C-alpha cells in the first residue's frame, strides 16, 4: 500500500511513500507523527491504523484543518 504524504505547498503534488518505508522510519525512531495528504482515502487511513494495531503499536488518527475551505485539511497519524 502506498500512502501520500502531505504537500508542503498547495501547488505541489503529494509525495508517495510505501508502508515499508513508514515502518522503517518508525523503527529508526526518526519520526512517529505523519501528516498525510487529503488525496488518501479514508478507507486507506483506516487500513493503515489497522496495520499498526496488528503490529502491536497504538496509532491515533485525526483530520487537521488549516483553512476555512472544506478542502483545506490533511490527516495526522500518530504512532506510539
Automatic annotation (TrEMBL):
It holds the Pfam family HP0268. It comes from the Bacteria. Residues 1-80 form the HP0268 domain. This is HP0268 domain-containing protein.
Amino acid at each position: 500500500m502506498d500512502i501520500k504524504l502531505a504537500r508542503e505547498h498547495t501547488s505541489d503534488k503529494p509525495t508517495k511513500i510505501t508502508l515499508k518505508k513508514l515502518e522503517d522510519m518508525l523503527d529508526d525512531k526518526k519520526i512517529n507523527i505523519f501528516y498525510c495528504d487529503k488525496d488518501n482515502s479514508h478507507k486507506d487511513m483506516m487500513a493503515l491504523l489497522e496495520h499498526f494495531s496488528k503490529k502491536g503499536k497504538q496509532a491515533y488518527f485525526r483530520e487537521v484543518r488549516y483553512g476555512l475551505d472544506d478542502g483545506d485539511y490533511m490527516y495526522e497519524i500518530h504512532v506510539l
